[in-house]
Every structure is written in structure tokens, then in C-alpha cells.
């Protein structure tokens, strides 16, 4: 079963002189529930554009995007904001942790923003344990390695129990061994939390980790 689908999606950007650039061309993909889906391709292939559309951060120029069978394009901006807050988590290449907050406080802050109604302290500790950082809860971000900071960002993204986590090039600035450990964390989260994860990468060594892999080249998508 697919939690997100696109149907014949185009994303067109206007250029100076009246020309048009197709970042995505007639893209139809299905993101399976409870799986790790990888969007691969070189820089400029359209994978980040596709991820932004899947995550309701951008809108297609043509075509449809469905989340749980509901067309995102038919939603108001307020409804899209609620969808992102409650159902989606985001991990970016730049981890963007708040430097004046501890690791624990960074994850807790995400829960407060999402209006999490459960035991926040218990949830933060569980998420940090899942990414192997329970012992670093009271450290500041600048005291952590790049790989540890990315793991905090993952804990923050999953803390409010989203249905889908979008990770845009989360391993791009990590060495290969740390990158593999991050992807292994994603696979464990899929198994333990039942979360759906969509990850972009250009690292061919990570392809085998995906339950499904889509390849993008010049805005055209193949695979699944």
C-alpha cells in the first residue's frame, strides 16, 4: 500500500527570456507505507525537487500528489501546514540544531512545536536511545561529531511520531562508514517505529539499503 503517490507530476520553473526549465517531467511514483525509499541521482537531477513536492513544501506545476488518498493540491495552506507538522518529519543535509540548546532540549523543542500530548521526556529519551545517543542527552551540539549531530536531527524528526520522514542528502557530509550507520538507523526505525522514510542520495554504495529505489536524471524518474 502506498502512503504517498504522484501522478504525472511536472515542475516547471520560468527562466529569463520567457524560457521554461522542467525540473520534473511526468513523474509518477508510489511511496510504500513502512518502507525505506531512496531517490537517487546526480546534482540537478530533480530528486530534491521531487522530495519537496512529496513533503508538501512545494507544489507541482501539473499532475497530482496524494497522501493517504487525499490530494494535497486541494488543501489550503493551513491544511498543508497541519499535514507537515503532524504527519511529516524532515532531516536536511544541514542539521540546523539550535546551538544554545542541549541535545535533549533540541528534540524536546520539536515535540513542543508539534503539540505532542504524551510524556515528552519519555519520548525524547526513547528517540535518543534509538539513535544511540542516550548518553549524550545533556551535551551541546558543538560537542558532537558530524555523525552524532545528524543522529540528533533524526531523533528530532521522528520524535512526534510522523508517518513519513523525508531525509534530503542526510549522509552527504559524512564519511562512508558514518553514512552507512545513519542508513542502518533508518532501517531500524522503519522496523521499530513503522515509519515510512524517503531519502535522497547520490551515493551509489547506499542503494542496496532501500526497499525501493527511484532514479532521477534530468527530471525524468524511473524505477520503484
Element layout with pairings:
Layout: E1 2-14, E2 20-27, E3 30-32, E4 36-40, H1 47-54, E5 62-67, E6 70-71, H2 77-87, E7 88-91, H3 103-114, H4 120-130, H5 146-158, E8 164-168, H6 176-193, E9 196-201, E10 212-217, E11 220-223
Parallel strand pairs: 4-9, 4-10, 7-8, 8-9
Antiparallel strand pairs: 1-2, 1-3, 1-5, 5-6, 10-11
Helix pairs in contact: 3-4, 3-5, 4-5
Molecular structure report:
The chain has 224 residues and is an alpha/beta fold. It has one domain: Rossmann fold, CATH 3.40.50.300. It is built from six helices and eleven strands. The strands form two sheets. The chain has a six-stranded mixed sheet, with helices on both faces. Strands 1, 2, 3, 5 and 6 form a five-stranded antiparallel sheet that branches. α3 crosses α4 and α4 packs across α5. The two termini are 13 Å apart.
Low-confidence stretches: none
Estimate the global geometry from the Cα principal axes: globular
Listing every helix as H and every strand as E from the N terminus to the C terminus, the arrangement reads EEEEHEEHEHHHEHEEE
Distance separating the two termini? 13 Å
Percent of residues in helices comes to: 25-40%
- Mean pLDDT across all amino acids: 93
Q: What is the CATH homologous superfamily assignment? A: P-loop containing nucleotide triphosphate hydrolases
Number of domains in the coordinates?
1
- Please state the CA-atom Rg, rounded to the nearest Å: 17 Å
Record the strand order, biggest sheet. 7-8-9-4-10-11
How large a portion of the residues is in β-strands, by DSSP E? 25-35%
Amino acid at each position: 500500500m502506498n502512503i504517498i503517490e504522484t501522478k504525472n507530476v511536472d515542475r516547471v520553473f520560468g527562466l529569463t527570456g520567457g524560457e521554461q526549465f522542467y525540473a520534473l517531467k511526468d513523474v509518477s511514483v508510489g511511496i510504500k507505507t513502512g518502507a525505506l525509499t531512496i531517490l537517487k541521482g546526480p546534482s540537478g537531477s530533480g530528486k530534491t525537487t521531487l522530495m519537496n513536492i512529496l513533503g508538501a513544501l512545494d507544489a507541482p506545476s501539473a499532475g497530482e500528489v496524494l497522501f493517504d488518498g487525499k490530494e494535497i493540491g486541494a488543501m489550503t495552506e493551513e491544511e498543508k501546514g497541519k499535514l507537515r507538522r503532524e504527519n511529516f518529519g524532515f532531516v536536511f543535509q544541514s542539521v540546523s540544531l539550535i546551538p544554545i540548546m542541549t541535545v535533549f532540549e533540541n528534540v524536546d523543542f520539536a515535540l513542543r512545536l508539534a503539540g505532542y500530548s504524551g510524556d515528552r521526556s519519555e519520548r525524547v529519551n526513547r528517540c535518543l536511545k534509538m539513535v544511540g545517543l542516550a548518553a549524550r542527552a545533556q551535551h551541546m551540539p558543538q560537542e558532537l561529531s558530524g555523525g552524532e549531530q545528524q543522529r540528533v536531527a533524526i531523533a528530532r524528526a521522528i520524535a512526534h511520531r510522523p508517518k513519513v520522514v523525508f531525509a534530503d542528502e542526510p549522509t552527504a557530509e559524512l564519511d562512508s562508514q558514518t553514512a552507512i550507520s545513519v542508513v542502518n538507523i533508518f532501517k531500524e526505525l522503519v522496523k521499530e517505529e513503522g515509519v515510512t522514510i524517503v531519502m535522497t542520495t547520490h551515493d551509489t554504495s547506499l542503494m542496496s539499503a532501500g526497499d525501493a529505489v527511484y532514479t532521477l536524471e534530468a527530471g525524468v524518474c524511473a524505477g520503484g
